[in-house]
Amino acid sequence: MSDNALGAFLRARREAVKPADVGLPDGPRRRTPGLRRSELATVAGVSVEYLTRLEQGRDRNPSMQVLGTLASALRMTPDERTHLRYLAKASNGSLALCPGVGRELARTVRPTVRALLDRLDPAPAVLLNRLGDVLARTSGYERLFGPVGLLDGDPPNVIRFTFVDARARAAFPEWDRVADEHVAALKLEAAQDHVYAPELISELAFAAGESFTTRLAAPPNPARMAPVERLAHPEAGDLRLSREPLDLSDGEQRIVVYLPADAATSAALDRLTGRLPGALRVVLNG
Fold it and tell me: What fold does the segment set 5-97 form as a domain?
């Protein structure tokens, strides 16, 4: 990584944004592409001097609030916001000190749990930890959620996908309800002092912005899983899936099994997963 990767990234994004993108006139005789520093400083509400120090690497400890303001002013995508946050942590040396970055949650899948999922295949079923990481899944789950993009993460995480991946809003027709459900569960984990919950909450607050933070600030609701979830599948159409959570004895993991909630979904699932049981896919460390 460059010694000033944060500053270089901010400058590259500034030069990629046109004045019209942020409601400013183009103006005559522009010698540099994109926004001038003075223009970005005005839109973001920071001083030109401070922005100059950030871009030149003379200030390596910007607050998350300032970075969030700059990210919004530069119209960054969720992926770009996540990358900006990573660069800021790397720049000020806090990356190695943060428990949620560089270290992973315990991801061991017991042999008996593997065997159980293998028995469930080809029914869609997934093993999750308390923060939504996908630890193992059946081939039926892959056929159900792979095409919508949920499994593209490294590691896949259902909460991060819901808030950060633009495809999630198309995949979940009842996205608001799904988002409410995930935030309620995260609040519960944070209240129980889960060591990794604050880092995930901080990451999502920065990457997703108001769609996450508004829910986080709302009065707490019970972390209840709705019995039926709608999924807009690119091949099978609109599916209504009954979910059956099975909490494991260690309290750290749960299996969720997806079953058809109506006849149309049953027929669609048969078409998707009606082949012989496939091999269990386990997400391994390293």
Answer: 434 Repressor (Amino-terminal Domain) (1.10.260)
